[in-house]
Amino acid sequence: MSETLITATLQNNPDLESRAVPEDHQDLRLWLRLLTCCNLIESQIRSHLRTDFESTLPRFDLMAQLQRTPGGMKMSELSRHMMVTNGNITGITDQLEKEGLVERIKVATDRRSSIIRLTAKGKRSFRKMAKSHEEWIRSMFAGLSEKNRASLFEALGELKQMTQVNLSGRA
Amino acid sequence: MSETLITATLQNNPDLESRAVPEDHQDLRLWLRLLTCCNLIESQIRSHLRTDFESTLPRFDLMAQLQRTPGGMKMSELSRHMMVTNGNITGITDQLEKEGLVERIKVATDRRSSIIRLTAKGKRSFRKMAKSHEEWIRSMFAGLSEKNRASLFEALGELKQMTQVNLSGRA
DNA sequence: TATTGTTATACTCTATAACTATA
DNA sequence: TATAGTTATAGAGTATAACAATA
User: Fold this and answer.
1) B34, B46, B60, B127: best mutation site toward chain A, by most A Cβ within 10 Å?
2) What is the mean pLDDT of each run of 10 residues along chain B (171 residues)?
3) Which helix (H) or strand (E) holds B41?
4) Which of A13, A170, B90, B117 is 20 to 30 Å from the Cα of A45, by its Cα?
5) Stronger pLDDT, B107 or A23, i.e. the higher one
6) Predicted confidence (pLDDT) at residue A12 exceeds the cutoff of 80
7) In whole angstroms, what is the distance from residue A141 CA to residue B171 CA?
8) What's the pLDDT score for residue A166?
9) Is the separation of the CB atoms in B41 and B140 below 8 Å?
10) What CATH number has the domain spanning B56-128?
């Protein structure tokens, strides 16, 4: 890891748990710990993507979506899947198209739509990024005990479901 | 929770775990689950801060720092603690000062420095926000079983320490 | 020379909304 | 009317860098 990367990462990642004071409730401390971990990891990934591949997380995510659907996706589908508004998909797609990583293909049956899909170059590029991405993750979690890894996965599963249910239940 | 809030929250929170495909490694799935949970919670907090208090997370964090040190802090200290560059502290402080929530106090011994501290209004305001903040957190974690809560706290502790060690170890 | 704080600028990410072409 | 995609704009959040005043 480069020194700049470390600096950038640290700059983005205050140890938020220090926000907590002794009287704080346990849930608050739990949340701050969760947030700190997540931010630490996420900004390392962002930094890696930037320095190793001159890319960003949204670009990576868009390419990941396309890689899973070899026939390509409509922009509106991408928008729904990535839960980002249409205009933003246009913007990211413009960048990636300019670099020859994705292509827009006109749909015969609906002249308003385009299908976006990875070009051969885009597939190669994504494969490389995804490989590194997985390796970054792997190495960041490497020191975690098997027991903690399993319980983390389970507990987060419960938390995730709860949070999502809370949202949809009140919509 | 308002409907706009829910929409905004959902818009910001794709279920990133769907990025994972069956062959993905366990660590990757764990990370995506962690990220999803974190983003879901964080953007609910951001939305709450915005709609209930017309505030933002960095502003809340800065006020939280000040609340813990009643004598106030120098801007450079704030910058170090929040791990954000000086210019940004100036910007947030300007906003908060304009609203009468913090005040700059000249330091006699070093005419370059100012001490920033919460005003009485700022203290009241922060207390209210912190109370709500804790309640939001509490209600978001409410459904989590005691067992999962404990194991999450422990596992994240290990993960946090690891990640931080990884960084400092290579610096 | 180094540090404190300010100012100016730029970039990423994302939302809102007006618009067009088509359905 | 409704939908697909584009364009323009705005705002949060953050970094870099030049600068003045002071140490």
Assistant:
1) B34
2) 37 58 72 86 88 91 93 94 93 94 94 96 95 91 92 91 60 29
3) helix B26-53
4) B90
5) B107
6) no
7) 19
8) 60
9) yes
10) 1.10.10.10
Total-model pTM = 0.81
Closest CA to B142 of A20, A159, A153: A159
d(CA A25, CA B21): 37
For chain B, domain boundaries: 1-54, 56-128
The answer to whether some atom of strand C lies closer than 7 Å to the beta carbon of A138 is no
- Closest residue, by C-alpha, to the C1' of D12: B56
A67 touches strand D (CB under 7 A): no
User: Measured from the CB, is B89 under 7 Å from any atom of strand C?
Assistant: yes
CB atoms within 10 A of CB A118: 23
Q: Decide: helix, strand or coil at residue A15.
A: coil
Percent of chain A surpassing pLDDT 70? 81
Pairwise CA distance, residues A82 & A49, whole Å: 19
CA of A116 to C1' of C20 (A): 20
